[in-house]
C-alpha cells in the first residue's frame, strides 16, 4: 500500500510567535509538512512560487499588504486552499467572512489572550482543518462575487402566506458562501428558514448581517421564544444551539446553551432533530458543504418523519463531509448542485 505524501503547508503571519507555534502544532502531525513561513504577503508570494505548497495558513490582518487583497490576487492567479487565522474581534469576524467569500476554505480563531497557549488548545482543530483544506475543492472566484451586494430585487410573490412549511438548512466548512447562494435566490415571502452554520460565538452577528444584506428575506439571529414567520430566516446566536418547538399551531425558536453535540455548538443534528419532532412532513431539510458528519443523522430523522430532504453534491461542495455522510446513510432524497438547491426547496414547499 502506498503511503500518502504529507500535505505541504506554508504559514503566513506577521507574528513570529504565531509562526513558531503554528509550525510546532502542524509539524506534530506526520500527515503535515511545514515547508516554510513568511512574515508578510510579499514574502509569501515568492515562497509560493518556489515551494509550491498544498495549503496556506494566512493571518487576516497583515502589514505591507492587506490579507484580503493578497487572498483576492492569489485566488485569481494561483488558486490554492487557504485556511485563515483570524482574531475573534468584530472586525476580525467581518474580515474573515469576506475572506471566505473570496475563496478561503475555512478559518481558525486566534485566541485574544496568551496566543501561544490558546493556539495550543486549538491544535487538533488547526491540524484537521489544514488536512481537510488539502483535500478541498478550490475555485478561482468570479468577479461577480467580489462586487458589493446590490439591493435585492423585489421578487415575484409566490403566495407563501402560512407557517405550514418550514425549511431547515445545516452547513459547516464552505457553508458561509453556500448559505449566501441559497438565501440570495429566495423571494421575500419564502417559507420560514431555520439554519445552523458552525461558527464561533463572536462571528454570528456579523454573519447574520451579511446574509441579510444579500437576501430579500429578513435574516436575523434567533432570540429564544420568538415566533418563526414566513419571509424570515433564523440563525442561532453565537455558540448556542437552535431548536424548533411547537406552540399550538405555530413554531417558535428555542435558543439554549446546552452541551456541544458532535463537538459543535451550534450543532446541525440538534436543529434537524427538533424540526423532525416539531414539523415532521411539513418540513424540508437541506445539508450543505461541511467537514465531518454533523447533521447526517438528524436529516435521516427528518426523512423518517416524512420531510423531503436534500444534500449538496460533491462537485459543488468545498468539503463533501456532512452531505456525503447523509448520502451514505440514505438520509437524502435528492443530491443537487448548490445552484439548484434554492429552486428545489421552493418547488418542494409549493407541492
TrEMBL record:
Compartments reported by the entry: Cytoplasm
Q: What post-translational modification does the entry describe?
A: Phosphorylated by CheA. Phosphorylation of the N-terminal regulatory domain activates the methylesterase activity.
PROSITE patterns the record matches: CHEB, RESPONSE_REGULATORY
Question: Superkingdom of this entry's organism?
Answer: Bacteria
Active-site residue list:
172, 198, 294
List, for all copies, the residue spans of the domain called Response regulatory: 8-125
Q: Which residues form the CheB-type methylesterase domain?
A: 160-351
Q: Cellular component GO terms, alphabetically?
A: cytoplasm
In this chain, where does the modification 4-aspartylphosphate occur?
Answer: 59
Which molecular-function annotations from GO does this UniProt entry contain?
Answer: phosphorelay response regulator activity; protein-glutamate methylesterase activity; protein-glutamine glutaminase activity
**Catalysed transformations (reactions):** [protein]-L-glutamate 5-O-methyl ester + H2O = L-glutamyl-[protein] + methanol + H(+); L-glutaminyl-[protein] + H2O = L-glutamyl-[protein] + NH4(+)
Classification via SUPFAM superfamilies? CheY-like, Methylesterase CheB, C-terminal domain
Entry keywords, A to Z: Chemotaxis, Cytoplasm, Hydrolase, Phosphoprotein
Q: Per the record, a Pfam family? A: Response_reg
Q: What's the family?
A: Belongs to the CheB family.
Q: What function does this protein fulfil?
A: Involved in chemotaxis. Part of a chemotaxis signal transduction system that modulates chemotaxis in response to various stimuli. Catalyzes the demethylation of specific methylglutamate residues introduced into the chemoreceptors (methyl-accepting chemotaxis proteins or MCP) by CheR. Also mediates the irreversible deamidation of specific glutamine residues to glutamic acid.
What's said on domains? Contains a C-terminal catalytic domain, and an N-terminal region which modulates catalytic activity.
Name of this chain's protein: Protein-glutamate methylesterase/protein-glutamine glutaminase
Provenance organism: Stenotrophomonas terrae
| Gene this protein is translated from | cheB
Amino acid at each position: 500500500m502506498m503511503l500518502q505524501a504529507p500535505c505541504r503547508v506554508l504559514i503566513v503571519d506577521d507574528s513570529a510567535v504565531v509562526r513558531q507555534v503554528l509550525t510546532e502544532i502542524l509539524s506534530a502531525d506526520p500527515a503535515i509538512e511545514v515547508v516554510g513561513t513568511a512574515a508578510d504577503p510579499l514574502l509569501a508570494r515568492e515562497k509560493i512560487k518556489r515551494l509550491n505548497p498544498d495549503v496556506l495558513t494566512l493571518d487576516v490582518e497583515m502589514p505591507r499588504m492587506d490579507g484580503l487583497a493578497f487572498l483576492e490576487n492569489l485566488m485569481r492567479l494561483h488558486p490554492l486552499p487557504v485556511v485563515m487565522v483570524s482574531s475573534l474581534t468584530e472586525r476580525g469576524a467581518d474580515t474573515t467572512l469576506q475572506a471566505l467569500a473570496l475563496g478561503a476554505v475555512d478559518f481558525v480563531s486566534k485566541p485574544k489572550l496568551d496566543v501561544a497557549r490558546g493556539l495550543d488548545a486549538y491544535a487538533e482543530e488547526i491540524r484537521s482543518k489544514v488536512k481537510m483544506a488539502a483535500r478541498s475543492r478550490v475555485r478561482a472566484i468570479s468577479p461577480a462575487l467580489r462586487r458589493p451586494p446590490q439591493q435585492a430585487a423585489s421578487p415575484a410573490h409566490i403566495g407563501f402566506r402560512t407557517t405550514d412549511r418550514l425549511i431547515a438548512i445545516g452547513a459547516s466548512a464552505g457553508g458561509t458562501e453556500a448559505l449566501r447562494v441559497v438565501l440570495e435566490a429566495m423571494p421575500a415571502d419564502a417559507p420560514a428558514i431555520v439554519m445552523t452554520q458552525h461558527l464561533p460565538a463572536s462571528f454570528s452577528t456579523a454573519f447574520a448581517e451579511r446574509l441579510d444584506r444579500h437576501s430579500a428575506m429578513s435574516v436575523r439571529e434567533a432570540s429564544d421564544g420568538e415566533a418563526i414567520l414566513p419571509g424570515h430566516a433564523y440563525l442561532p446566536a453565537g455558540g448556542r444551539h437552535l431548536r424548533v418547538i411547537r406552540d399550538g399551531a405555530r413554531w417558535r425558536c428555542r435558543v439554549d446553551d446546552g452541551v456541544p453535540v458532535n463537538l459543535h455548538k451550534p450543532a446541525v443534528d440538534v436543529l434537524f432533530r427538533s424540526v423532525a419532532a416539531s414539523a415532521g412532513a411539513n418540513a424540508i431539510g437541506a445539508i450543505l458543504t461541511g467537514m465531518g458528519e454533523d447533521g447526517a443523522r438528524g436529516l435521516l430523522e427528518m426523512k423518517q418523519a416524512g420531510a423531503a430532504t436534500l444534500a449538496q453534491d460533491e462537485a459543488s461542495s468545498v468539503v463533501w463531509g456532512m452531505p456525503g455522510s447523509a448520502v451514505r446513510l440514505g438520509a437524502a432524497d435528492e443530491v443537487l448542485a448548490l445552484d439548484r438547491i434554492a429552486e428545489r426547496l421552493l418547488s418542494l414547499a409549493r407541492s
